[in-house]
Amino acid sequence: MYKVKVYITLRESVLDPQGTAVKRALATHGYEGIQEVRIGKYMELTLDESVKDVDAAVKEMCERLLANTVIEDYRYEVEEVVAQ
After folding, report:
1. SS3 for 16?
2. What value does the mean pLDDT take over residues 1-5?
3. How do the domains of the chain map onto residue ranges?
4. Phi then psi for 23, rounded to 5 degrees?
5. What per-residue string of b and e applies to 42-60 under the rule 16 or more CB within 10 Å gives b?
6. Cβ(21)–Cβ(39) below 8 Å
7. Check: CATH 3.30.1280.10 for 2-80?
8. Are 58 and 6 in contact, with CB atoms under 8 Å apart?
9. Where are the alpha helices (DSSP H) in 1-84?
C-alpha cells in the first residue's frame, strides 16, 4: 500500500487574495514580520498494491483533476506503508 501526500499551491505569478487576507488578519492580531502568506491545498491518497506505476498515476490524477495546472503547481511524496 502507498500513502501519497499531495501539496497544491498557486503559482508565484498568481495573486493570492486569500493569503493577503490572512496576512492582514495576522497583523491585526499583533503578529509582525510576516512577509507573505500563500494558501494551498493538502491531500492524502492511499493507493493499494494494484497500482503498478504510482508516480505516473499520481501525476495523471494531479494534472487531470486535482490541480488546475494553469494557475497551480503541485508536488507529492510517496511513502510505502505496510498493511496491518
Report:
1. coil
2. 96
3. 2-80
4. -60, -45
5. eeebebeeeeeebeeebee
6. no
7. yes
8. yes
9. 17-28, 54-61
